[in-house]
Amino acid sequence: xxxxxxxxxxxxxxxxxxxxxxxxxxxxxxxxxxxxxxxxxxxxxxxxxxxxxxxxxxxxxxxxxxxxxxxxxxxxxxxxxxxxxxxxxxxxxxxxxxxxxxxxxxxxxxxxxxxxxxxxxxxxxxxxxxxxxxxxxxxxxxxxxxxxxxxxxxxxxxxxxxxxxxxxxxxxxxxxxxxxxxxxxxxxxxxxxxxxxxxxxx
Length: 202
Description:
- This protein is α+β, with helices and mostly antiparallel strands.
- It has two domains: 1-37, no CATH class; 40-201, Up-down Bundle (Butyryl-CoA Dehydrogenase, subunit A, domain 3).
- It has helices spanning 42-62, 79-88, 92-122, 128-141, 147-158, 171-189, 193-201; strands at 9-10, 17-18, 66-70, 73-77, 160-161, 165-169.
């Protein structure tokens, strides 16, 4: 039996538990947050945000993420181009960090959320514990995806010597930042309590 079957309602903000099914406009008496047994249209919002992030991930990797103007010569660079350049310069550790944060983590997040959504829809052979561990890991690594954007922001602020060297962010930086935000919103919009509903329906 789940909490929903027992008529229990959890406040998603302060985690207070109520022993009745609230009305549509019920609010938590502790924090004032809206009470609902399940987030409204949670799966639809998560799907929409995930698909949008997947679409934007293409220009984020194809377009220029950083322009380096050195003595008047423009040297645009994509994400993978920057990783390859760091390897050529011998900065293997930095290249590894940038590759993991900018390529591996976003792909893992999108595939992880996709796997959870598909497992709910098609009843994949995944246990509830595997689903929730995967979801918690996605939430944990989500913040590290912005590392590449932070590096570009710092370089653009520090390296700005007129006529000598100037670093500016490219169009891909906006797309990549949007991908990170959308995947974070997708994870936040997903109601993990649906995992237990799926179990009771099996």
